[in-house]
Every structure is written in C-alpha cells, then in structure tokens.
Amino acid sequence: MHEIAGADFILAIGTNTTETHPVLSLQVRKAVKEGAKLVVADPRRIELADIAETHIQHKSGSDLALLNAMANVIIEEGLWNREFVEQRTEDFEALSQAVKDCTPEWAAETTGVSAETIRETARAYAGAEKASILYTMGITQHICGTDNVLAIANLALLTGQIGRENTGVNPLRGQNNVQGACDMGALPNVYPGYQAVNNPDMQQKFEKAWGVELSPKAGLVVGEMMDAAYAGTLKGLFVIGENPLMSDPDSNHVIQAMDKIDFLVVQDLFLTETAEKADVILPAASFAEKNGTFTNTERRVQRVRKAVEPIGDSKPDWEILVMLSNAMGYPMQYGSPGDIMKEINAVTPQYGGITFERLEKQGLQWPCPDVDHPGTKFLHKDKFARGKGKFHAVSHVDPDEVPDEEYPYVLTTGRRLFHYHTGSMSRRAKGLAEAYPEEYLEVNPKDALKLEVETGGKVRVASRRGEIEIPIRVTERIQPGLVFASFHFRETWLNKLTNDARDPIAKIPEFKVSAVKIEKVV
Question: Of 151, 181, 301, 335, which has fewest CB within 10 angstroms of its CB?
C-alpha cells in the first residue's frame, strides 16, 4: 500500500477512496503532495476529485468505452512498451484489432467525456515512469465487470506498468478480511489457494487431506442461492457474518426467497435484518474477542489477538464450526487457530511459509511458499502466474437498464465515510450515528428544479423492483440525470431498488446502474 505514495501517475477509477478506504487514501494524498498526477474517473465529483489534476466525470456504466479508447490512443500513437509486450505478453494483435475503432471521438459519445481529455489521460499514463491504477466496485459491479477489469489489465500490459514498484493494477478490498476469505476458498468454485474444484488433481489432494469424497461441481454464488431458494430447490441456508436481506440487490426478491427457505441459520454479532428471519441464531465473537489472522488488501497476513473475553454465550466462528461439525458426525480435532494455520500451511501453496510463529514477529505477504521465504512485496515481477500476460479483446456493452420515458433517472449506489455496509455495526456506534444519522439522495440542482424539491425535501424513488421514500440533498457533485445514495440505512432500504442483473463470468450484480423514477412526496 505504501508503494502508492511513490507513483508519479495514479488513475483512480470507480473508487471513492477517501470514504471507502480512508487510511489508504492518505497514500494517494502523499503521492499528489510529492508531485504525482492524479486522474479520478467517477460519475460523481467525489472528494478525491478535488485534489486531482483531472476529473473524468463519465456516464455510469461507460467505463469500458473509456478504457478501450485509452488503449486505442496508446497503440495508435505508438506509446506502448514494445519490449514488455514482446517479451512478457501474448495476443497483442487481438487487442489491437478490438480497439481499432474505439477512438476517443467514438468514446466521447458513449462516456460524455471529451476526446481530448481521453487522449491526455492515455498519454500521461503511458508516458509515466511509475503509473498505478486503483479500482474498486465502481468497476466490478456492472454486467460487464469482468471485462472492465480485463480492460484495466490491458492498459497495464500495453505500457509495462506492472511488476515494478509503484506500478500495477490495484483492486482495493472493501473489508478487513475479504482477501483472506477468498484465499481460504470462501468461493463456490475453488478450494483454499484458488485451487479449482473441477481439477481432478486438486480434488484428489483435498479428498486425501480431509478424508471425504468431494464434488467436482462448482457451487452457487449468493444471487444464485436466492434464485434457487425462491424456486424451492434450495431448502437450507447458513449465513455467517453477512446480511443479504439488505446487502443484496432486489431486496424484495431476497425477502421472498428467504421466506421460502425451510431452515435458516445465521451466525453473527448482532440481530441483523437477516437474523430476524432465522430459525437458529448462533452468537459469534467479534475481532477483539478471538485469535487468528486477517489478510488485507496487499495480501499481508497479520495476527489477530484476543483483547477481551467473548460476551455472553458468543464464541469465535472457528469454534462454532468445529462444534457443529463434530455434532454432525465429521470430527474436527483443531484445538486452536494455530492448529488450523498448520493445515493451511500444508494445503495452500501461497501460505506454505506463513506460520503462526513467524507472524508473531511481523505480517507476511503471500505468496510465501516456505519458512525461508521473506514474502512477496509485489506480484508479477519477472513473470505472470500463467506465464505470459494475456491481452483480452473486450467490447463496450450498455448497462442492463438504461433510462427511458417511464424511468428517466439512473441510480448509482455506494458507501459513506461514517458507516459500513448494512450498518449492523457502525450504526450501533453512538458517535458515528450522531455524525451521520440518516441517508439522503444526492440530486443535481437541475433535476431538483424539475422535481420542485429542495434539500431536506422528501421524494419517492421507484424502480421496476420496488420503491422507497428518502430525503434529498441538492448538490453539484452529481451529474444531471444521475442520483446517488448508500445502502447503510434500513429506513431507506436502497437495495429494494437495485438491479440483480449479473456479470455472466464473475456473477457480480449491477448495483451501479438502475433505472428509476422520482416524484416529490407532498
């Protein structure tokens, strides 16, 4: 993370860094202070745009057109790193053909950004000695989210802005241990260490380690689980540390799906909206009440140490899972998180050398294959995991919903500085609740004039899936035709409006673009 401060060019696209990653944003501020050029690409004028040299305020859902146009400029003007492309990449011709017609003039019509701004940004990125791209869910939460990420990777491969200090493609993780959860196989298609469930060698490896027969079939993602529950084919659900009733798109559909589940178990710290529907609630301990590890956004595995005893009957998640497993007939012999880490060392190659003993002294970044390895500061230094870096030919697609006569506005959603996710923790903190007590809808002055509403006035917002009432704040930070709010507040249940259309590959829903209509509440 500290490398960000050493970049001389930063493209922050689809990331509201100061509000969603406030600590990391200090590194961006430091880079700017040291003379780095910062370009922010975001449909809203977020706080980070105030210190940027350029703010690209493109239309929500047009990221791919913008990124492909940048690739077009870099290739057409001969700004690409020939040595890097020839030695370390493949399929350059496929990319070159794919972006041949993606001129800045073409992209200007789709994005609403001037062709000259696109050209200047592409030249600055390609010409920088050390350029870094930061992105988060503003890039991924689209029906073309996977292609958006591939388009970002294309730019880094074209220019060789990867595998060196202060460069790279940097996805900023949104939770303290979401990286660790993914690393440990909390995904439907991989075992720990991203070892594919449909790979016979991996299947055999984990069958031997765990002493059971395993299926080569990938499981369901969250949205598919809700669809299956609604259809009646998924009968039971075990939810750990998640509140899908409020965090998933099209909440009314999720509520109906949950009502059809025969048996719902929720393991959490608090009585969340999802837990209210549970047949059984298992009280879990917080981070301060347990031992273990977290893996952060830079792949750094760090010790978590118990500061206080668990409250009431709550227990660390691993203890609850061990007790359940033993009760269900599969004996687990783990006596501590240290025992679990020993198994992780044995079955997860990236974590092979990350032992509890070493972590007592300092955090370690994976890949760290053995106990003599110092950890890996940045990835892709000499080669990529797959060998050569692969260019992908990806094309712009319109969002699943676009404004029309009935639903003329676009709703986009995100987070606020003072709260987190569905507010199950942050809204219980008195100071945070006082600092940000309620949600509001950001509306451009031109739209507020049409709606005949002022700051503090209430509007009814409706999509094809549901409706809510919410007060508004009139602000120039939002484009005409675009509105924004967070999903932290039950009182303004925003995900009743959002679209559950998904990216076909990663299956991430298109939270960032939903067509809505708005009317003043009299």
Answer: 335
